[in-house]
Write a structure and sequence with these properties.
The protein is an all-alpha fold and 125 residues long. It contains five helices and no strands. The protein is elongated, with a radius of gyration of 17 Å. The relative contact order is 0.16.
């Protein structure tokens, strides 16, 4: 995954390097990667809260879970939009789409997790 995003960045720089809005176009890539990370973070936070509920008041617990789920849903929406933007950029620079071309929320969620795990595994130490 990391290599595909590096290739997209390189291709976008080649195609748009002389354009005045090149930086804005290139910003699609880190913005999307951050959206994928935010989605994974919100899922993890919700799962941790459910696993170790520190709140003994059932109403407060339920309200907290609902708010966390709302945050997770919004992060998921942002990840879906980011996938579409990345794929549009791929098409513009004539690369194969990186992200799933689907409305399947589970597939998009799994993709986010895969991207985040791949970036972590291939980090520069």
């Amino acid at each position: 995954m990391k290599e595909q995003f590096e290739a997209l960045c390189k291709a976008a720089k080649t195609v748009y390097g002389d354009e005045p809005d090149c930086d804005d176009i290139l910003d699609i890539i880190p913005s999307a990667l951050k959206a994928f990370l935010r989605y994974v973070e919100t899922v993890d936070a919700l799962e941790i809260y459910r696993l170790v509920p520190l709140e003994s008041n059932p109403e407060i617990y339920r309200n907290t879970v609902q708010e966390m789920d709302k945050t997770r849903h919004n992060a998921h929406e942002a990840a879906i939009i980011s996938c579409k933007m990345v794929n549009r950029l791929c098409a513009a620079v004539e690369l194969t789409p990186i992200c799933p071309e689907t409305e399947d929320r589970v597939e998009i969620g799994n993709f986010c997790c895969t991207v985040v795990a791949d970036l972590f595994a291939k980090r520069v130490l």
